[in-house]
Amino acid sequence: MLRILIADDHPLFAWGLSRLVSKLDEDVETVEAGDFPEAVRIAREKAPFDLILTDLRMPGMREFEGVRALRNAAPSVPIVVITGFESRTGLERCLESGAQGFLPKSSQPSVMMNAIRVVLSGEIYVPPSLFSSEPESAETALTRGMDGRSLREMHPNIQMLTRRQLGVLALIGQGLSNRDIAENLNISEGTVKVHVGAILKTLGVSNRTRAALLVTELGFPQEQPEEADKVMARPAHQ
User: Fold this and answer.
1) What span, in angstroms and rounded, lies between the C-alpha atoms of 22 and 122?
2) Where in the chain is the domain with CATH 3.40.50.2300?
């Protein structure tokens, strides 16, 4: 059974989200809360949960204080913030508060489902669109490598990736999980994991989120990821 806590002060949206996530598994149980204090209480008293989906602005607590309270109440449960207030600053602060995902309420149901599956698989999901439309925030490290270099300064390292790894990187930029990447490229999920590890090490980034931001920064193709193989002209090798 998959148990999901849905926290939203708009009953209609919570109902719709509950119906959507019911498609994640044959046996899904959802528990709803209408404000942050209730959500925190339920997270503690009705555990365990496999996932928490929460609005950002609800009664009872300030925005990010509420996300942190949920994180403290359920330290090992992935949290996805689903909000109508879409900004890069909000995204960054949600991640800093302990969320593993950030979704605009305007997202298509298919995008929401894919993002939730990504988070359930142990990965982080952020919408690349937020990083292509706003300038880089100088006061945060989210869009920088582990050594503080800007994404543009890491550009030369792209040339160290194989063509197959470039294809994997382009799909990471679309928010696809390892399983979806494997299906797209017709390779095993284990091979994808190996490529992802090599990509992160080569680019000097610590997680998939930063790798995805690099894809957006460099303008990798989004509709036809296989074209990423052509981003750099160099001999073919695997």
Assistant:
1) 19
2) 2-127
Q: Which amino acid is at 45?
A: E
**Side chain identity at 31, as an amino acid letter?**
V
Ranges of the chain with pLDDT below 50:
132-152, 154, 222-238
The pTM for the full model equals: 0.61
Q: What is the pLDDT of residues 124-161, one digit of tens each?
A: 888 766 654 444 443 343 344 434 444 445 456 776 77
CATH 1.10.10.10 spans which residues of the chain? Answer: 152-230
Q: What percent of the chain has pLDDT over 90?
A: 36
CATH class of 152-230: mainly alpha
3-state secondary structure 154-184: HHHHHCCCCHHHHHHHHHHCCCCCHHHHHHH
Closest CA to 43 of 4, 86, 75, 74: 74
Average confidence score pLDDT of the chain: 80
d(CA 91, CA 126): 8
CB 80 within 8 A of CB 34: no
pLDDT of residue 111: 86
Instruction: Evaluate whether the domain defined by 2-127 bears CATH number 3.40.50.2300.
Output: yes
The two three-digit tokens of residue 158, written as one number: 């792209």
Q: If we measure between CA atoms, which residue out of 232, 234, 217 comes closest to residue 145?
A: 217
Q: How far is CA 7 from CA 95, 102, 120, 129, in A?
A: 17, 14, 17, 25
Task: Indicate the DSSP class of residue 2.
Answer: E
